């Protein structure tokens, strides 16, 4: 599947999570629900790991990639969902859905400051626009919503760090990254939730939470990682940032939440901001050093000109491969090969 379509499908699944989780907060604490959501993600991706023989892939990773994986687990699997659910308790699902676009701004700013993910003037203007849209929502929904907005902003900052770490991982498939993030963080959050809060949920509510996690945090995250590793974390997040609009739509359809003029204004600012970021171009002469690693790739670009046995190598696939030294100029995104 084309990475743009992959990112949009991931966005639709993730956007549905916020309205789907809102009713579940009456039965679970934030830690309990966060744990079940990510365990659902792990359950959804584990069969894929077994089929590919990747169940023990972290043992084969080098120290750098294990560190990136653990960082992604901590930021995106443990802290991010708990902070989000704390915010969702105090605000409408529609508002929280739109606030989640702060994740794009967080990903972009953290990338520019710490991860060699370059942003031009249009990119910085887009990040400022997203912050303005979030402030519009917080102002329109009152003091309680402003507190909820801070919880969601903190969650988005955590997910921004997660996005940048995850996009740099090689030697592990998107399904593998999603499984280990879900299994480790989900177990940890659920244990904390059981320790500090009573267990009140019915079996049907548990099954619903696991199903939401499997789709919104399992399939969705695996699809996003696949796209981000091919087009870069910030550009992948640009497409993934359509998720809040799916969230608003589902909040209206499923929860009958009232949409206000502030939602419309924030949505308009967000669309304009995404348009600015989509118009950014990054093109110059650059050099690639010789390198050997493993990640999902195809043979429709000059970076992957290695040969395969006859009949192999069609479409997107993953295996250890070597890159020859290369100097050229083209438009590019900050993917695994363009962090300069």
**Arrangement of strands in the largest sheet:** 1-4
Strand content: 5-15%
- What is the mean pLDDT? 82
Q: Can you summarize the main beta sheet?
A: 2 strands, antiparallel
- Structural category: mainly alpha
How far apart the termini lie comes to 27 Å
Overall helicity: 55-70%
Low-confidence stretches: none
Would you kindly provide a written description of the structure presented here, covering whatever features stand out?
The mean pLDDT is 82. The chain has one domain. With 340 residues, it is mostly helical. The chain is built from 13 helices and four strands. α1 (3-15) packs antiparallel against α10. It has helices spanning 3-15, 17-21, 30-52, 63-89, 93-99, 102-114, 121-141, 143-167, 174-196, 203-231, 233-240, 243-255, 261-278; strands at residues 283-288, 291-297, 317-323, 326-331. It has a two-stranded antiparallel sheet. A two-stranded antiparallel sheet has the order 2-3.
Fill in the keyword field for this structure.
340 residues, mainly alpha, two-stranded antiparallel ribbon, 13 helices, 4 strands
Compact description:
With 340 residues, this protein is mainly alpha-helical. It is built from 13 helices and four strands. It is globular.
List the helices and strands and how they pair.
Elements: H1 3-15, H2 17-21, H3 30-52, H4 63-89, H5 93-99, H6 102-114, H7 121-141, H8 143-167, H9 174-196, H10 203-231, H11 233-240, H12 243-255, H13 261-278, E1 283-288, E2 291-297, E3 317-323, E4 326-331
Antiparallel strand pairs: 1-4, 2-3
